[in-house]
Specification:
Layout: E1 4-11, H1 16-19, E2 25-31, H2 34-46, E3 62-64, H3 66-74, H4 87-106, E4 109-116
Antiparallel strand pairs: 1-2, 1-4, 3-4
Helix pairs in contact: 3-4
Length: 117
């Protein structure tokens, strides 16, 4: 067990009925990337989102805009964690993920971050 973090995408034109038949596209997943999770949690609160009093910021979708991705890209240096042996791999993967997410948004898709403990 541990922190699993995911970025997803789906067509913004899907109705609720259509969403029952389509699975979102998983863009990227991360294991144990706590600094990213903490950053997304702060973004979620900043956007007016609430957090479950029992489960906290777990299995909560944080929808992302191009401005959010710009801020995340700019914050990459601040996300570095000397205690995280996976940081170099996480940083490189996150840079690529931000590019993919921007492409999905430019094509009219909704993108979001979610996590599971």
């Amino acid at each position: 067990m541990g922190l699993d973090a995911y970025f997803y995408s789906e067509a913004s034109t899907l109705t609720d009925d259509q969403k029952k038949f389509y699975s979102p596209i998983e863009i990227q997943s991360f294991r144990r990337f706590q600094t990213l999770h903490d950053w997304m949690h702060r973004l979620h609160i900043k956007k007016g989102g609430c957090v479950d009093p029992v489960y906290g910021y777990n299995r909560v979708n944080t929808y992302l805009t191009l401005d959010d991705l710009d801020a995340l890209d700019a914050a990459l240096d601040d996300l570095s964690d000397d205690l995280d042996e996976w940081w170099p791999i996480h940083a490189m993967s996150l840079k690529k993920t931000i590019i993919h997410l921007r492409v999905h948004i430019s094509r009219g898709m909704n993108v979001w971050y979610t996590s599971s403990w």
